[in-house]
Specification:
The complex is a heterodimer.
Chain A (H helix, E strand, L loop, with lengths): L2 E3 L4 E5 L4 E3 L2 E3 L5 E7 L6 E5 L10 E2 L10 E3 L8 E9 L5 E4 L3 E6 L1
Parallel strand pairs in A: 2-11
Antiparallel strand pairs in A: 1-4, 3-8, 5-6, 5-9, 7-8, 9-10, 9-11
Chain B lengths: L3 E3 L3 E4 L5 E7 L5 E8 L3 E10 L2 E4 L6 E7 L2 E6 L8 E8 L6 E2 L3 E5 L1
Parallel strand pairs in B: 2-11
Antiparallel strand pairs in B: 1-3, 3-8, 4-5, 4-9, 5-6, 7-8, 9-10, 9-11
The chains are: A mainly beta, B mainly beta.
C-alpha cells in the first residue's frame, strides 16, 4: 500500500540553525513527491516538487530511492519559515491520487 | 492563477443533518479531491474523482459520499452528520499526475 510517513509532529529550532524535515514513503512504482506548506491562516500551497529539482525560499529536497526518503532541508532557518509542512506522494498508476503524510509543525524561535 | 473555491469557510450543523460541501475549480483539472485535516493526523483522503461521474474511495470514506456531475464541481455529502465529523475539510484539484491546488477549507462543527 502507498504510504507517506513524517516521523516528527513538531520541530523547534532557533533562527539561523539548519532544518531537516523528514519524509519517508512506501510505493512500488516510480514516485512523484511534493512538499506542501501551510502558513497560519493561509491555504495549503505547493513548496516544491522533486522533478523540478529547484530551491524555493532556500528549501531543497532530494529524492533518495534507496532509502525511500524525500527530506526537506534548509541551511539557515528564518522565523517566517514557521508553518505546517506536509510531504505528499502522487500515485501515478492511480490517476495521480495525492497521498499526504501526517505533517510536521516547524517552529523557528528568534 | 488556479482558483479553487469552497462554498463556506465555517459551518455549524446539528447531529443527524445532511450536509453539503461544495468545491469549484476553474482550470479544467481532471482530478479533484476531498480531504479531512485533523491535528496530528495530517490530511486524510476521503474521496478522489479522476473524471466526471467517476470517483474512488480514499482512506476514510465511511459516512461520506460525493458527487461530480460537472468537471469543475465536486461535492462532499455527509448523509447524517455526527460529532466525529467535526473537522477542517479541504478540497483540491490537479491535472492528471500534477501538483494539487487547494481551496481555503471549510471548518465544519457538528453539535
Amino acid at each position: 500500500a502507498q504510504r507517506v510517513t513524517q516521523p516528527e509532529k513538531l520541530l523547534s529550532v532557533f533562527k539561523g540553525a539548519p532544518v531537516e524535515l523528514k519524509c519517508n514513503y512506501s510505493y512500488s512504482g516510480s514516485p512523484e513527491l511534493f512538499w506542501y506548506v501551510q502558513y497560519s491562516r493561509q491555504r495549503l500551497q505547493l513548496l516544491l516538487r522533486h522533478i523540478s529539482r529547484e530551491s524555493i525560499k532556500g528549501f531543497t529536497a532530494d529524492l533518495n530511492k534507496g532509502e525511500t526518503s524525500f527530506h526537506l532541508k534548509k541551511p539557515f532557518a528564518q522565523e517566517e519559515d514557521s508553518a505546517m509542512y506536509y510531504c505528499a506522494l502522487s500515485v501515478n498508476n492511480q490517476g495521480g491520487k495525492l497521498i499526504f503524510g501526517q505533517g510536521t509543525e516547524l517552529s523557528v524561535k528568534p | 492563477d488556479v482558483k479553487v473555491t469552497q462554498s463556506s469557510r465555517y459551518l455549524v450543523k446539528r447531529t443527524g443533518e445532511k450536509v453539503f460541501l461544495e468545491c469549484v475549480q476553474d482550470m479544467d483539472h481532471e482530478n479533484m479531491f476531498w480531504y479531512r485535516q485533523d491535528p496530528g493526523l495530517g490530511l486524510r483522503l476521503i474521496y478522489f474523482s479522476y473524471d466526471v461521474k467517476m470517483k474512488e474511495k480514499g482512506d476514510i470514506p465511511e459516512g461520506y459520499s460525493v458527487s461530480r456531475e460537472k468537471k469543475e464541481r465536486f461535492s462532499l455529502i455527509l448523509e447524517s452528520a455526527s460529532t466525529n465529523q467535526t473537522s477542517m475539510y479541504l478540497c483540491a484539484s490537479s491535472l492528471r499526475q500534477g501538483k494539487g491546488y487547494f481551496g481555503p477549507g471549510t471548518r465544519l462543527t457538528v453539535t
